[in-house]
Amino acid sequence: MEPAGYAGADTGRLDATFAALADPTRRAILARLARGEASVTELAEPFAMSQPAISKHLKVLERAGLISRGREAQRRPRRLQAQPLAEANQWLENYRRCWEESFQRLDVLLAEMKTASRKRGRPK
Amino acid sequence: MEPAGYAGADTGRLDATFAALADPTRRAILARLARGEASVTELAEPFAMSQPAISKHLKVLERAGLISRGREAQRRPRRLQAQPLAEANQWLENYRRCWEESFQRLDVLLAEMKTASRKRGRPK
Q1: Would you call B107 exposed, middle or buried from its count of C-beta atoms within 10 A (0-12, 13-18, 19+)?
Q2: Which of A28, A74, A96, A112 is within CB 3.0–4.6 Å of B6 for a Cys-Cys bond?
Q3: How many Cβ pairs closer than 8 A exist between chain A and B?
Q4: pTM, whole model, 2 decimals?
Q5: How far apart are CA A101 and CA B82, in angstroms?
Q6: Which residues in chain A are contacts of B23 at CB distance < 8 A?
């Protein structure tokens, strides 16, 4: 988590993973593929989107290493490749302490507000 | 994790978080701020970058809700806001089963390769 180390080996990979995840359609495609492989036609179905538009998103996901193509000649089903997600998860885990602390501060604040409002509500 | 649910309330927030994380300088800034608040000058120091360039990155992080500005008039120190990271982490956790399965498949494959190479190495 040292700033000096930001030019590490997997920097480009993390860039590509996070950029690929910054779109709701691409995240929805990954959610669909987590349930099993699917052809481009099957992936396009739930979206109000042309097949070329979906293909563009698939290209971004493929370049980021998040999906691969099956060998089956006709359907060329897409498959989820979850390893880059594990790496992104690992990067985020460095900050767990930070968000847990901020949630704790929020809990304390809420408890204080509750006590204060109870005191105000008490008959004098 | 349903594709139909991708237009959920926090979709825009996840978009902004992942887009903000898709850059090594911005990730390094967050890593620095995880160690404590810092002024723009302090944040610019470790980078071979102009202050305006750093300010641009800070704006992206601020818009994504990942940093906030302190009240101290002169320094206006930036502070990490880790809650969006918790949300991104939660989204990724949906895929834990997927990457654990793929790591298990890799382990099996490696074990098979080891056995095969040992068999080849055995004197006949």
Answers
A1: exposed
A2: A28
A3: 124
A4: 0.83
A5: 9
A6: 15
Q: CA–CA separation, A82 vs A88, rounded Å?
A: 10
Beta strands of chain A (E only): which ranges?
Answer: 67-69, 78-80
ipTM attached to this prediction = 0.83
What is the total residue count of chain B? Answer: 124
Q: Which residues lie across from B77 on neighbouring strands?
A: none
Q: Are B66 and B79 in contact (CB under 8 A)?
A: no
Tokens 């120190």 correspond to what residue? B77
CA angle B81, B87, B88 (to 5 degrees): 100
Tell me the pLDDT tens digit for each residue of B39-59: 999 999 988 888 899 999 999
Look at the block and give the residue holding tokens 């860039």. Answer: A15
| Digit-coded pLDDT (tens) for B93-121 | 999 999 999 888 888 989 999 999 888 87
CB contact under 8 A, B15 and A4: no
